[in-house]
Amino acid sequence: MRKLGVFNHVTVDGFICDLENDMSFDHENSDEQWESWSAHNVQGGGATLLMGRVTYDMMKSYWPTAAAKKQSPAIAEVMNSAEKIVFSRTQKSSDWENTRFVNDDIVGAVKRLKKEEGPDMLIFGSGSIVSQLSAAKLIDEYQMIVNPYVLGKGKTMFETIDEPLKLKQTGAQTFQNGNVVLTYVV
Quick count: other Cβ atoms within 10 Å of Cβ 99? Predict the structure, then answer.
């Protein structure tokens, strides 16, 4: 069975973006150590990427560009070549390579995907999708990059969780730029 993980930047106060979906805090304090870790982390991937349409629009506006390929070539290569599944009620096609859309029941679609052969799956951003799939107990691992920022207001990835979700920490790594990567399994 394929595993489903989450890879999200969060602020110290627990937000993945502000109220306008801006998550620029996640790359404002990048440094050589962080860039090296990020490139190494993504190269070990090979996962199918899952995302909502808002996250998809943001990712598509950057990763296929010349600027992304120059600034973060290893990450851009993985992001562009990876299979991408986008959950959207309205959008049905894209010119970003290896992208397909699911326009119906997210929970049912992910249950089917987990049973299929293939690489593990990973969600970036997409707080409402993380929330729905967490509530359905379909996420196996959470990797959260805590950034040294406080937004005060914003969106979390657990907004619609109705009952507590017990997690077990399996890793922690601190970086010179103030980021802390925390890994949890359900």
Answer: 19
* pLDDT tens figures, 105-136: 999 999 999 999 999 999 988 888 999 999 99
Of residues 85, 89, 88, the one with CA closest to residue 123: 85
Distance separating alpha carbons of residues 155 and 72, to the nearest angstrom: 27
Write the DSSP string, 73-134: HHHHHHHHHS-EEEE-SS----SSTTEEEE-S-HHHHHHHHHHSSS--EEEES-HHHHHHHH
β-partners of residue 168 are 185
CA distances from 63 to 46, 78, 98, 136, 154 (A): 16, 9, 13, 30, 24
**Range 4-172: architecture per CATH:** 3-Layer(aba) Sandwich (3.40)
Structure tokens at 83: 């299979």
The domain segmentation of the chain, as residue ranges, is 4-172
pTM of this structure: 0.88
Location of structure tokens 């970036």: 124
Assign 36 to helix, strand or coil.
helix
